[in-house]
Amino acid sequence: MRKEFARGKPILDGFSLSVGTSETMALLGPSGCGKTTALKLVNRLLSADSGEVRVFGRDVSGEDAVALRRRIGWVIQEGGLLPHWTVGENVATVPRLLGWPEERRFARAREVLSMVNLPAEEFWRRRPRELSGGQRQRVGVARALAADPGLVLMDEPFGALDPIARRALHKEFLAWKQSLGKPVLFVTHDVGEAFRLADRIAVIRAGRVVQVGTPKEISDSPADEFVREFASE
Predict the structure, then answer these.
(1) What pTM does this model have?
(2) Which of 172, 104, 99 is nearest to 142 (CA)?
């Protein structure tokens, strides 16, 4: 896979990666190395200049971009919530776009809110401004899961949280991923977070995958000095 800047310098070059059916894969690397670009190629917010990106076994270049995104959960920092909508309305966004009847989409929204420890009877009518950072992030996760997507993308989902909220959400994430059994691709520059949450880690430098392996493999057998130094931070 290759994706270039307009001026010709490659963002991703020779980038090859696969994620298992129920695997959590972390994209780990310094700022600007191409991690978020990789996520955007998966859901066609960007298009590759060469090579292909396959999701659900199909090349995304031949897919309707909007329909594809509605089958992929997307979690970003602070949840990216619509400020004028309630928590319940935010969570039900994708089921609404998919044309689910109101009773079904609201039932599903209540279900996933319960999953992220935000009971609907307490949080349904709140606005994002009435929530803490950790609660907004939980709502963002619930929204990403509401339509039961086949793949979940997470772009630095815990980066804006304080250390206490971050640790709490890490613990909850491990429980979610075990119960959901979905492929998750998440971006982080936090080594500890990647080692704690991922089944496998892809270490990226300047648009290239330097090493892919389990946390133990990365730690015990780093591919080069860059990986050794980065993994020891």
Answers:
(1) 0.89
(2) 172
Q: Residue 125's closest CA among 139, 146, 115?
A: 139
Look up residue 115 and give its two tokens.
């999953």
Q: Token pair for residue 143?
A: 């929204």
Backbone phi, psi, residue 72, to 5° = -125, 125
Same-domain pairing of 124 and 154: no
- Could you tell me how many residues make up the chain? 233
Q: Give me the number of domains the chain comprises.
A: 2
Are 23 and 95 found together in one domain? no
Query: Helices (DSSP H) in the chain: which residue ranges?
Result: 35-42, 65-69, 87-91, 93-97, 102-115, 120-123, 133-145, 163-180, 191-197, 215-220, 225-231
Lookup result for tokens 């950072």: 133
Residues 63 and 117 occupy one common structural domain: no
Q: Percent helix, strand, coil in the chain (nearest 5)?
A: 45, 20, 35
- pLDDT tens, 34-46? 899 999 999 999 8
